[in-house]
Amino acid sequence: MPVHRAQAWKYKLKSLSLKAKNMFERVLIAEDQQSMNFWMLQTLKELEITDAHYACYCDDALTRIKNSLKDGAPFDLLITDLSFVDDGRTQSISNGADLIKVVRQHQPTIKVLVFSSEPNPTVVNMLFDKLAIDGYVHKGRTDTIDLKAALAAIYKGKKFIPEAFRVSIRQKNAFKFSNYDVAIIEQIAGGANQNKIPDYLKQQNMKPTSLSSIEKRLAQIKDELGFKKNEQLIAYCKDLKII
Amino acid sequence: MPVHRAQAWKYKLKSLSLKAKNMFERVLIAEDQQSMNFWMLQTLKELEITDAHYACYCDDALTRIKNSLKDGAPFDLLITDLSFVDDGRTQSISNGADLIKVVRQHQPTIKVLVFSSEPNPTVVNMLFDKLAIDGYVHKGRTDTIDLKAALAAIYKGKKFIPEAFRVSIRQKNAFKFSNYDVAIIEQIAGGANQNKIPDYLKQQNMKPTSLSSIEKRLAQIKDELGFKKNEQLIAYCKDLKII
DNA sequence: ACTTATTTTACGGGAAGCCGTAAGCGCATT
DNA sequence: AATGCGCTTACGGCTTCCCGTAAAATAAGT
Which of B56, B141, B185, B228 is the best mutation test for A, with the most CBs of A within 10 A? Predict the structure, then answer.
């Protein structure tokens, strides 16, 4: 494939060039807002990152990551949103968190910056904890500055968390929901009677499956969060986008 | 106030100029994402709208609207987001829908374009119904084109709804929640036992207040939406941002 | 003012959920 | 093999919720 060869060659040339770079070279943006993509490309250009590309779908982003590895011209940085609107095109990856997971499997060393309007510190905290992202920039009133600061920080190997979040992350860290918990809660939110859930869990090869265990787990979750009723829990999980 | 005089004069000059304009002249953007504001200003400039301004807070937006009227140089168009992140600065208006309501009280003729990432057709439908907005552009994979199309359409006095929404608005229009309904559902989502709700409703001067009526109303709502359990209803209401 | 219709309330039986106790099971240690 | 520990399951009573029926109250029509 001559195209790939050419790309790899170009990349090597860059790497070998004597001009000391102090910024990322190849950046991939995964973001479904076209306006945001345009603006982002422009901002990167101002930082002399000319080799930036974007994908409007998670699947496309993954493909580009894979191809870039094949071509020997891997991306240095992935900037991704969290939520992608489903517009009918069936996608195997539907959100930014899943995209990060899969991308990491292919290219563990890639730096990841999340750029999203997710305002919930608990969710963001999870990203740093479980996905080891390198930075988070909240789409907001200072995002133009934050983005530049984040790029600089991450390039130097630092993590980037905006001040506003750093505080409240500690405050709010209430409870970790396991997959098991989420499965149960989703069933309830979907209208299932609790006595139907054991069968469902068996089907999903999750355990424990007994009604008693489910009751107990639910009681524990609610107790830890200070809730008394399932409805409260559902509301909470919806707010935190756990379900 | 010399500044205001000058502005008004400038505005009159423009209006009287022989050059036939086919686009808005004075535009106000209410949007809390700085990046989006920058991009929007640029886009408007491409359309030769140079007299565009933005506000990061709803209250600021309202102030500018008021001032523009005082100065005799009113805005032709308000472009606003729906959700504004609360960053601690206390605001009397906290979201786009409320902003539109208040702005309309001061300047009923102003055109309103909502530019948001709200994906729920029911919510958007409400905006056209209750707030009589002139257009809706969804921040998404085609928003750069949509925005320009919307501006052109609205300028010609047409309404603008993207195709993708036009369809599903009809499909999904399921149920209208009254204040009474919302009050009950909020109580449940907050963890209240149903037998505590009568007292609450009396306190709020809402009726009927009997437990039986509440049970009946809940049953009816769930029946119409095809739900069987409260938890399902809570999940639904959270998704639709009814609570 | 009387009847009719609709809404609201009261009540009661059955279903679902909640919660504590105790029995069952697997697993590691000795 | 026996013991102890933790997790899972089974069961029973108690509460809350669900839903139907009927009485009471309110609104509407003549």
Answer: B141
